[in-house]
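Protein modeling request. Please complete all fields; requests missing the sequence field cannot be processed.
Requester role: graduate student
Desired output: 3D structure, token encoding
Chains: 1
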Amino acid sequence: MPVFLYEARDATGEKVSGKVEASNRKAATQRLQEQRMAIISLKEVSGGVGGGDVGAFLDKFKKVNEQALTVFSRQFATMINAGLAMVRCLDILSEQTEDKKLQSTLDQVRRDVEAGQTLSASLARHPQVFSTLYISMVKAGEMGGVLDEVQERLAGFMEKDFALKKKVKSAL
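Delivered output (172 residues):
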């Protein structure tokens, strides 16, 4: 799928730039407008598989380190529970993580949330990183107004799941 570089102004009027993946120029424009962006420029930089950047194409298939995702979930739950703004939490955690794919994903999620999307909707745009269970739990937490409690439960679940997988691997 083609990748487009864009420069735009967000809802606050601040100039932002980044990449958006879409099937064509019109779809890229529509996706940015849905995020309440006023497009300044939009250039296609690659055409997916046949395009120039093979490394970027292969990065799509690279998985996020499960331990990094577990640590992110625990820290995000703690920060939300402490009353920090969601955008600030995502910003801090994307800077702290060492996993490059998780870092870029969190940057995109932060931009989506800043543009007015719900956290669950922006997480749903990254199914290769966040499971359906994770997204559904976050959505339920948002709807019920208990996102901090849901994040705590998710973090606990992910920690137990990671520990169990680690035990199974060591037993084998």
